[in-house]
Each structure stands twice: as C-alpha cells, then as structure tokens.
Amino acid sequence: MSNLYVTFGKKIDTYTFVLPLKSKYYDLTNKIKNINDIRNNFDNVAVENNNMYFNVLRDNYIKQILENNLFGVRPPLVDNKNIIVEFSSPNIAKPFHIGHLRSTIIGNCIANLNSFLQNEVTKINYLGDWGTQFGYVYIGMKMKNIDNIEMYTDPIKTLYTSYVDANKLAESNPNIHEHAKEIFRQLEFEDNEVYKNWEKIKQFTVLELEKTYKRLSVIFDQYEWESMYTAKKVNKIINKMEEMQLLKLDNNNRKAIAVSEEKNVPIMKSDGTSLYISRDIAAAIDRFERHKFDTMYYIVENGQTDHFNNLIQILHKLNLSWADRLKHVKFGRVHGMSTRKGTAVFLEDILNKAKEIMKQRQLEAKSKSVLSVIINRT
C-alpha cells in the first residue's frame, strides 16, 4: 500500500486514487467500468502505465455508507415483536422544554433500535391536554380575549402565558381555582361550547409542535391526547373495579384502589372527574385492544416512577395478563424551571439560540461544508 497515491480535487469535490497494478492492464479498463458498484461510486476510471486511476464520487459513496451503516452487523433472526414507544408527550399548556428533549431523543433512539431489529414499531406522542390546569388556561384566554388568529400564530406560547396569568390572578382571588375546576368538569362531559373550543386549540397545537419535531428529525405515527379518555370513557373501567370490589372512598371522598396494604391510589375525584392515573389506565387498555403490543415503553423522567409502578399494579388488580409488558424507561429530571411562575424556557428558543451560535462558528471556521448541512436542516 506504500505505492497508493491519493489526491483531493477541491474544485470537483472528488478524491483521485492512483493504484499500481501487478497484472497486465490491457483489458482491465472496460471490465472495471462494467462493474455496477464501480459505476455507482467511481468516475474517470483509467489504466495507464501499470497504474489504475479513478475518482471516488464522494456524495454517492457517503450516501451509501449512511444508508447501509451496518458494517457487517445484522439483526438476530428472532420473531418480530409489536412495540409501542410513547415519548416526548409535552403538556400543551406548558413549554416544550429541555426535559421533553431528553424524552424525545431517547424515545426516538429506542424506536429506531426496535425498527433495526425488524420489530413493528408505533411511535406515540401522548399530549397532555386535560386536568384542572386547563381550566386555568381557559380562564387566562378569556381574560386576554385570545382569538383564533393569535392561537394560530403561536398556540403553545399563547396557552402558556394564559396559564401563567390565570395562576397569578389566583394568588389574590381564591375563586379562580373553583372556576377552573368547574371549567374542567364541563370539558370532561364533552358536548358543550367549552369542549368544542378546546378541540380547535388542539389542532393549532399539533401544527406548531410538528415544526419543532421536524427540526429534530422526529416523526410520530400517532398523536394521542389525554382528552381521549374523558370521565365517560373512564367510568366503564371504574364500574368494573366496583364490580370486582377493588374501590373504596378515601378521606377526601375520592374513589381509591389499594395497590398494597399500606398504599391507596386515588382513581376518581369526589366531583366525578378523572385523574391522570385513571386516564393512563384507560389508555393502556385501549392501546392493548387496538395494537396487541408485546411491549409498551414509556419514556418519562424518573420523578414518575411511582406513577408507573402504580399503573402496572392496578392493571394486575384488574387481572390483565399483559400488565408486565409495560416498561418505564426513566432519565434524570431537569430542575429549576417553573411553569406557574413563568420561568420555564422553551425548547424552540434553545434551538434558535443554538442555530445562531452554529452560524457564527461556521462563519469563523475554515471548513464550512459540514456545518452548512446542519444549519440548513435546522
């Protein structure tokens, strides 16, 4: 190999190799040009004076490496599994922040690994759009007279500022909390003006979120909502729990289920509205009925460990044989941001700042080709 010479032509963006030949070269040129792999990856193939010359078509070559970057590794020959990965899952009244970025990247990686193993993968983004907090959002929107144009322009930040403003008002007006609870109660029982308006808000939100996901090269198969599992839908499961004599009233008059001798988990509020855990129970049952999954991964920070342990235990109490197919993939929590106080930082703003820094570094860098690709994609 000491006689192999390589030169780089900047103007034509190719590498030229000069390879000494030990055999006769009179019939090599045409044979080489007729080999498919060479035609696709090399140009200007020539044989002269016992040397073979050729240019590597860099773009084609790199493209093939990136698209077939297995380097001899192949997935094991096992039965294909049906996998669900629920990840990212921001709360639409709160910023899509750096914590959601962790869930998004880890979840997408797990989905890609399972796709590589030739499993059937469904990527779900389970958006938080339910609970008393959305009563606060609705109050804030009414306070500011938010119209559809403003919602369409920047829905997530509009919802966030509405939530922050309503919380500030609640500090001096205790009636705000009761008003927020009543608005959520109306949302739970659907068929009313509040519910119809909320449906429009959700549509605007998905359009905005998809802009951020596009920058991260993340595509979801399904967008699902907490509001898919309203009190009407949860009541079917509550009735089954009551038939199985699993429920009792706690000190706050909430329906609760015992997951151990020492621990009761509330399932339904005293006013008949659902809780996060009851909606997750309904979602897990609904997904198994629709997908018959072998494993469902929840990519959520480790502060939710107890929640997912409770969820699995409750599904066991319901005698659902697939309860252990639920897996919580946890990661460290990002501290120091408060939604109520308005100190949270939007991921979109972080990405924009990163883009500015990269652009400045590109201008200062001697070699700009790789950076330009990254900046153009973001």
Automatic annotation (TrEMBL):
<dbReference type="InterPro" id="IPR001412">
    <property type="entry name" value="aa-tRNA-synth_I_CS"/>
</dbReference>
<dbReference type="GO" id="GO:0032543">
    <property type="term" value="P:mitochondrial translation"/>
</dbReference>
<keyword id="KW-0030">Aminoacyl-tRNA synthetase</keyword>
<dbReference type="GO" id="GO:0004814">
    <property type="term" value="F:arginine-tRNA ligase activity"/>
</dbReference>
<comment type="function">
    <text>Catalyzes the attachment of arginine to tRNA(Arg) in a two-step reaction: arginine is first activated by ATP to form Arg-AMP and then transferred to the acceptor end of tRNA(Arg).</text>
</comment>
<protein>
    <recommendedName>
        <fullName>Probable arginine--tRNA ligase, mitochondrial</fullName>
    </recommendedName>
</protein>
<dbReference type="InterPro" id="IPR001278">
    <property type="entry name" value="Arg-tRNA-ligase"/>
</dbReference>
<dbReference type="InterPro" id="IPR014729">
    <property type="entry name" value="Rossmann-like_a/b/a_fold"/>
</dbReference>
<dbReference type="InterPro" id="IPR035684">
    <property type="entry name" value="ArgRS_core"/>
</dbReference>
<feature type="domain" description="Arginyl-tRNA synthetase catalytic core">
    <location>
        <begin position="64"/>
        <end position="371"/>
    </location>
</feature>
<dbReference type="GO" id="GO:0006420">
    <property type="term" value="P:arginyl-tRNA aminoacylation"/>
</dbReference>
<comment type="similarity">
    <text>Belongs to the class-I aminoacyl-tRNA synthetase family.</text>
</comment>
<keyword id="KW-0436">Ligase</keyword>
<dbReference type="Pfam" id="PF00750">
    <property type="entry name" value="tRNA-synt_1d"/>
</dbReference>
<dbReference type="GO" id="GO:0005524">
    <property type="term" value="F:ATP binding"/>
</dbReference>
<keyword id="KW-0547">Nucleotide-binding</keyword>
<dbReference type="GO" id="GO:0005739">
    <property type="term" value="C:mitochondrion"/>
</dbReference>
<keyword id="KW-0648">Protein biosynthesis</keyword>
<keyword id="KW-0067">ATP-binding</keyword>
